[in-house]
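Could you help me review a protein record that somebody else here produced? What it holds is a sequence and that sequence's fold in token form. I need someone to confirm that the token line plausibly describes how this chain folds. Take the sequence as given and treat only the tokens as open to question. This is what I was given:
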Amino acid sequence: MAEKGKHKVVLIDYDEALFAPLGFEGEMLAQAGAQWEVHQCRTPEEVVQVAHDAEVVVIQTVRPLLTREVIAQLPRCRCMIRAGAGYDSIDYKAASEFGIMVCNAPTYCTDDVADHAIALMLGCVRHLARLNAAMREGRFARELARPTRRLRGTTLGIIGLGRIGSTVARRVRGWEMRILAYDPYITQEQADKVGAQLVSLYELLTHADFLTIHCPLTEETHHMLSWDEFATIKPGLILVNTARGPIVHEEPLVEALRDGRVWAAGLDVTEEEPLPPDSPLLELDNVILTPHIAANSPEAQEDLYRLICEISADVVQGRIPRFVVNPEVLDHLRPAE
């Protein structure tokens, strides 16, 4: 229960391995007149129990804990913050209907995710994972280095030319690659700043030698790459996904990896997380898998919690915070008590 006269900010769950709170949050929010609480909720019932009197609710998991049913039981909540860039673990529509702002933290890990995407791309084209595994098994299996290709003169396709996608484009500009991008929400003038040419999704798929995904998971992008798209791709594609697993339909991806239409894939995210032990992806030596850690760095961890505190302080002090992803709610915000 929040202390009398104090606002309450509740973190309902966090990643213990990489993104636990750092300890400065309580003092930073106290200066704004807010009380900071940290919990590890695993069920909707636990969320309601700890956050029923919170003005700001922060969620880190990508699991859907903030459902319509939960949101309806949080009468004091004025803002929900996704401790990350994607906000698909919050029922965006329900929050908007209840007059609750939804914010994300899109700036905290831009460099880190871009770096990881490039690392996966390079690891795939040079087959580093399977070559390393063979060496550790005592096999000098040089034949595992094929197929490969030189990067210069190839085409990189980017789905989503926002902060991370643009950073990837800037990183590779000196590599003499052609850069194509699909993003219906930006202009060619914006794309020109990072050396990319905007094209349709079809044109991107038919020309890209490498494809990296940096768009959010929405109803529009769920299974954006499925059977028809994998039937369209330029043979020999190398696919990288550091965004959200369900953007890529895994069944046709696995088929394409097996028959060679996709040479290799670097996946930091999968449709189901953690990856099930019987996943066919684990059987393929042309797949590099990492456990949704692209955002990881000490700098990103600190940036994340400072941004959460800044957004929370704005809310409890009556200001409109940065990074409101449902601006339509500003016309009917839930009033402060």
User: Anything to note?
Assistant: The chain has two domains: 7-108+297-332, 110-289. The chain has a mean pLDDT of 96. Residues 131 and 144 are 6 Å apart (CA to CA).
